[in-house]
Design brief:
By secondary structure, this protein is an alpha/beta fold. Helix content is 39%, strand content 12%. It is built from 14 helices and eleven strands. Helix 4 (126-139) packs parallel to helix 6. Bound molecules: zinc ion (ZN).
Length: 383
């Protein structure tokens, strides 16, 4: 089976929506006693967006060009630029070179997650090479290591069986990552929608993608591992490495149900999740049960990392027009997410065909989700 291309980029861009009308706030409660109740801590507004230092924990900058960095500066973002063992991205050496250029250009703003090639994992010299490369990358400032969904969905062993994250080959790699003081970012499985028929999927971007790519639509491939098989293998790996800092990319592929994410975070204290390219799945839930989703963010305020999956690949920043378009779309994605998480404003999200009121999360929650949690999860302050 061919490796499955990421549809996350499309997901991130499809999130972008125009400004909705401002949600009217309810009347202020009237104090009945002489001592008025303390006012709730004020949340943030759209005006605060540019002022707060923020960190996008999941982006891909596969170019030497400064376009991404310029927009990150303009919108007051630091970024975690992630290399991926993904055949549709540039070769790993090129991704690494791009990351190093970006980090060097602004080390306080650009952080780097390296990766390693899974191919050849049964060869005798594979582990030694991977360990040497990770050590060299850590010495050059890498803060994390990404393992992609080719583990679980594409890579096979010499007997032709798919390999999973709990394959014994990855255990010494995890030990090395931990020893080097790095964090593992794991993207295993696919959105739950991938295992559903088209008419039961929650978002239009997933529906369109799997309609056009039936080969990757797991509902049509019962011979492939189930969604629960994928999640269980990932969970066994996380359980086997309790001292390893683990970030489950894309809400740990549990995006369809905040109860599932909560159970994962409860069970594995070393795990966090990033939100990259899954905000519409969260919005799908909050338009149905606003309080449940808002309470989830408040309860797990120490475990959630803001991220987008914004991606800039070679050939996408070659002209002034392309550079301006990327900046416009990145700004739009970042402000749309801020409107949803930080303010009470409503906005139209076409891929779920809904007007989505903002969660207006308390300031201290936003401060953690947008910055402090990433600093801790990637140990950025100590390195
Ligand atoms: Zn990504």
């Amino acid at each position: 089976m061919k490796p499955i291309p990421s549809m996350l980029f499309a997901g991130a861009f499809l999130l972008m929506c125009g400004c909705g009308s401002k949600e009217a706030e309810g009347p202020l409660p009237v104090a009945e006693s002489a001592q008025p109740a303390p006012a709730p801590a004020p949340g943030y507004s759209m005006e605060d967006f540019a002022n707060l230092r923020k960190l996008d924990a999941h982006v891909h900058i596969n170019v030497l060009d400064s376009t991404f960095l310029e927009q990150a500066r303009a919108d007051n973002f630091e970024v975690m630029a992630i290399n991926v063992d993904y055949p549709d991205f540039p070769k790993l050496a090129e991704q690494r070179a791009a990351a190093l250029v970006q980090v060097k250009a602004d080390p306080a703003r650009v952080h780097w997650a390296t990766t390693f090639a899974v191919k050849g994992f049964e060869k005798k010299d594979w582990l030694g090479k991977v360990k040497a490369q990770l050590a060299a990358d850590a010495a050059q400032g890498a803060k994390a290591v990404k393992i992609w969904k080719n583990v679980g969905m594409a890579e096979k062993d010499s007997s032709g069986r798919l390999i999973f994250l709990d394959n014994p080959a990855f255990s010494p790699v995890a030990d090395e990552i931990q020893k080097l003081g790095l964090t593992l970012i794991g993207h295993q499985a696919e959105p739950y929608n991938c295992w559903l028929p088209l008419d039961q999927m929650s978002t239009d971007n997933d529906r369109e993608y799997f309609k056009e790519h039936p080969q990757y639509h797991m509902f049509l491939h019962p011979e492939m591992p189930s969604y629960e098989d994928q999640i269980a293998a990932r969970d066994r790996f996380v359980a086997a490495h309790p001292q390893l800092r683990f970030v489950g990319a894309h809400l740990g592929s549990l995006e369809y149900d905040t109860d599932r994410i909560a159970a994962f975070l409860d069970k594995y204290p070393n795990a966090n999740v990033d939100m990259a390219a899954r905000m519409s799945q969260v919005q799908y839930q909050s338009v149905r049960d606003y309080d449940k989703v808002r309470n989830f963010f408040i309860k797990y305020q120490d475990r959630l990392l803001y991220g987008t999956d914004l991606t800039l690949n070679p050939g996408e920043a070659g002209t002034d027009e392309q550079r301006a378009e990327f900046k416009r779309s990145a700004h739009e994605a970042w402000t749309a997410d801020w409107r949803y998480l930080a303010t009470p404003e409503s906005q139209r999200v076409e891929i779920i065909k809904a007007d989505v009121p903002g969660l207006a999360l308390p300031r201290e929650v936003i401060d953690k989700v947008y910055y402090a949690n990433a600093v801790r999860a990637f140990a950025l302050a100590s390195q």
